[in-house]
Amino acid sequence: MLFEGLWFRYSRRAPWALRGAEATAAPGDTIVVLGPNGAGKSTLLQLAAGVLRPTRGRIRDRPSVVGWVPERFPAAQPFTALGYLHAMSAVRGLPARAADPWIERLGLAAHADTPLADLSKGTAQKVGLAQALLTPPGLLVLDEPWEGLDAASRTLIPEIVTEVTDAGGVVLVSDHRGEIANLPGARHWTLAAGELRTTTTQAKPETDELIVEVAVRRHEAAAAVVQLRAAGHRVLGVRENGLSVREKHTTVEEDR
Ligand SMILES: Nc1ncnc2c1ncn2[C@@H]1O[C@H](COP(=O)(O)OP(=O)(O)OP(=O)(O)O)[C@@H](O)[C@H]1O
Fold first, then answer.
1. Is residue 125 within 8 Å of 69, Cβ to Cβ?
2. Which residues form the ABC transporter domain (predicted)?
3. Which SS3 state, helix, strand or coil, does residue 118 take?
4. Mean of the pLDDT values across residues 205-231?
5. Which of 53, 82, 97, 165 is deepest in the core (most CB within 10 A)?
6. ipTM above 0.85, yes or no
7. What are phi and psi of 40, to 5 degrees?
8. By the 8 A CB rule, do 119 and 72 touch?
């Protein structure tokens, strides 16, 4: 997935919330988006999910199934928790029972008949997670997913992130408190006043490793990355036309 020169402002006179962001995300990547309040994290995540359209620039090769969990679950809807998940299953062309495994795993059964507006923040957050996971997402976007979750439920997030990336999905997660900055293998994208800096693994072999460069057809790149990772290889990056987008436009640093 390529982020190409993304600029965004909320209205014609508003200041830029995002300024020329350039980045790439490969299948299996976990990307933690860091930065202080107002830096542009939610804006970038909404652009990634396709909820907002860039004012300038574009996003290429976005996976077809996107799971999106907003920072604030839109609870002012006339549904019970179960009714909402059934409606969302129908929207995705799934039977109502598609929600059952998530209702069980996220402990939502006791709240099934509660109107969305009456749910606690943490339970509403879990309903938001369940709807995002009804169909295995190729891209999962989580905006501050810990907000309101109790300690027991917080461990679910890294579990779910790992399941999605193991299946070849990309996860983008914002984290203004730095709670999962240390998620194993996660890359960091840091925003400051709308400017994005990405970090990535340097193409430096460990002692008994060699680097093998492989060219694949654009439409086969995602599958190739998944296969290489499944075979136990480390994928160091995805480049286009011999130059990575990051090499052209952003600082490359080592973070893992
Ligand atoms: N709906 C909106 N309309 C107008 N301006 C907005 C809107 N949403 C965000 N902004 C502005 O865009 C800038 C980036 O905001 P954004 O919410 O993306 O930051 P953030 O890093 O996610 O912050 P936080 O951690 O507080 O959620 C800020 O200046 C913010 O005031």
1. yes
2. 1-218
3. helix
4. 79
5. 165
6. yes
7. 115, 10
8. no
Measured in whole angstroms, the distance separating CA 119 from the mean position of its chain's CA atoms is 25
Closest CA to 145 of 23, 53, 27, 32: 32
For the chain, the farthest-separated pair of C-alpha atoms sits apart, in whole angstroms, at 59
Q: Residue for token digits 């574009």? A: 58
245 C-alpha to ligand 1 centroid (Å) = 26
User: pTM for this one?
Assistant: 0.81
Torsion angle (degrees, nearest 10) of CA 133, 28, 246, 48: -10
What tens digit of pLDDT does each residue of 105-138 get? Answer: 999 999 999 999 999 989 999 999 999 999 999 9
For 177-189, write each residue's pLDDT tens digit.
766 655 667 888 9
> Is the Cβ–Cβ distance between 193 and 39 less than 8 Å?
yes
Measured CA to CA, the distance from residue 143 to residue 100 in angstroms comes to: 24
Q: Which domains does the chain have, with CATH numbers?
A: 2-202 (3.40.50.300)
**pLDDT tens-digit map of 82-106:** 999 999 999 999 998 999 999 999 9
Stretch 57-74: mean pLDDT:
92
Pocket test for ligand 1, best of 6, 8, 9, 10 (most atoms within 8 A of CB): 10
Provide the pLDDT confidence category of residue 241 given band limits of 50, 70 and 90. low
Q: Which residues line ligand 1 (CB under 6 A)?
A: 10, 14, 17, 35, 37-43, 176
Q: In what order do the strands lie in the sheet with 2-8?
A: 18-24, 2-8, 56-60
